[in-house]
Design a protein that fits this description.
elongated, alpha+beta, 4 strands, four-stranded antiparallel sheet, Tetrahydropterin Synthase, Chain A, single chain, 3 helices
Length: about 130
């Protein structure tokens, strides 16, 4: 009888902890994507590298959980968009504009999940140009 009572209490405790974990998971309002490390190719050589840390959050402070399946798609499309912009449109000798890149990423997210659902911002931006030897 004592073992049964202990098992019942253990199961109820585990269930409550699981419910707490689920509520924490659904109350997260943003996600930090894995950093994007993008080579800037000019001609036939790598001219520089850009490292971007992107945060994606819900615009209305609701749970990010329904948008979690989009995370790998967003990361892939963000990489492709920034790579194309830096390799095709960026002029060497100028620092890439973080605000412009953030607006581009926002347009990509709006296209994938729909407008006014997610907000994209660049949490960390690092441009590295190796010195020529």
């Amino acid at each position: 009888m004592l073992k049964s009572l202990f098992l019942l209490v253990s199961l109820l405790t585990a269930h409550e902890k699981g419910a707490e974990g689920a509520s924490k998971e659904t109350t997260e309002t943003y996600v930090e994507l894995q950093p994007l490390i993008i080579p800037v190719v000019k001609g036939d050589q790598v001219f520089a590298f850009v490292r971007i840390l992107v945060h994606v959050m819900t615009k209305d402070a609701t749970s990010i959980y329904p948008f979690k399946p989009y995370e790998p798609i967003l990361r892939d499309r963000f990489f492709a968009d920034v790579y194309g912009a830096l390799c095709d449109q960026w002029l060497p000798g100028q620092q890439p504009n973080q605000d412009t890149l953030e607006k581009r990423l926002q347009r990509v997210a709006d296209h994938i999940v729909g407008p006014d659902k997610l907000r994209v911002f660049i949490a960390h931006f690092y441009f590295y140009k190796p010195e020529k030897k």
